[in-house]
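Why does residue order matter? Because the sequence determines the fold. Keep that principle in mind as you read this record.
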Amino acid sequence: MAANLSLELAKHALLMFGILLAVGTFSGVLARWVKVPDVVIFLLVGMLIGSSGLGWVNIQADSTINQFIMIFGSSYILFDGGASIKLKVLKEVWITLLSIATLGVLITAVITGIAAHYLLGLTPIVALLLGAVLASTDPATLVPIFKQIRIKERVAQTVMSESAFNDAMGAILTFTVLGVAMGAGDFSLSAAMADLLKQALLGVVIGGVLGYLAALFISHEKLGFLAEFAPVVSLMAVIAAYMGADGMGSSGFMAVFVFGIMLGNQASLGFKQTAQESHQLEDYVMTTALIMRMFIFILLGTQVDFALMNQYLFAGVGVVVIFMLVARPATVFLCALPDRRANWSVKELLFMCWTRETGVIPGALAGLLLGMKAPGAEIIASVTFIAILMTILIQATTTKWLAKKLNLLADDQP
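Structure:
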């Protein structure tokens, strides 16, 4: 009986994957035809085929399959983003990056929390918890957008790097505030910053070590015995980086991002691949990242709870508008404008103000709060869904238009 049940579950999972791949492929073609980032179409199609729509796909947010796809998919997309980062660019903007990924998360959370307190009538601590959930940007959304829309190098790489580095700060802040809301402790800024520093350093070290070893065994003239297996090594190392960092209480997403940076800057480490090997690895990563993108955003769309959203729709939209038009600009100008080394232009700052989509990471945090029955969890989940829809459907679709208006498209933009 148990064997039959396992077989039926396996067949169901296989059917779901087949539907996701088929629908995702046609959605990708449609996105190219209408000239918008494919994550937008994936999200909309997911809403259409989910349990609130046609009912073709019904994978629960707390299921093992969903958690696997979200964790591995986000990790692989983040690795892909890290591989496109150039170390020379990070050296120029590291002050902005550090400031906006730490202090910026606090600024966003506080301003959004104040809006939630007045518009939704939440207690200050629950309102701050909502702000903390929404405060981190989403690498799974931003990396694909900048892969498809070629923005000037340092702006694109700063925003992508921020999205990788600030997830640790967002998670730390969320669970610190949650502890206070549930009566489990007092908020300590010094303890939160110490924890952030620990997570950041461990993530950087683990990702850096694995990235160097991968580059060594793939591209070293004498030790590169795994050159033919570079795609498999990258896959294995992404899993090892995430699991190693997570097991040591660090940020798995930061580790895979740094791993990607190391592997993408092999020449700076003294390693060099042949053109054929480099092309093979690039093709594999691009295809795998596309599949992960399909799965993540179609699934995210299928799990949008319209009934829950409708309960707090108008006030929630008001909070998200303030989040987009007040909290984000305040964060960018307070954190990036003082950086004289980077010497940001007003046009670059305006673009960064608009580009901060919400997606998988805040959605996962909101789901965790629901599972823990945290104070105000349903309201937080409702507003988080609204933020995901509004930022992806409004900001992602207008990214190329705004970049063109601000003259920030790369010179090699198709």
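DSSP finds 16 helices and no strands in the chain.
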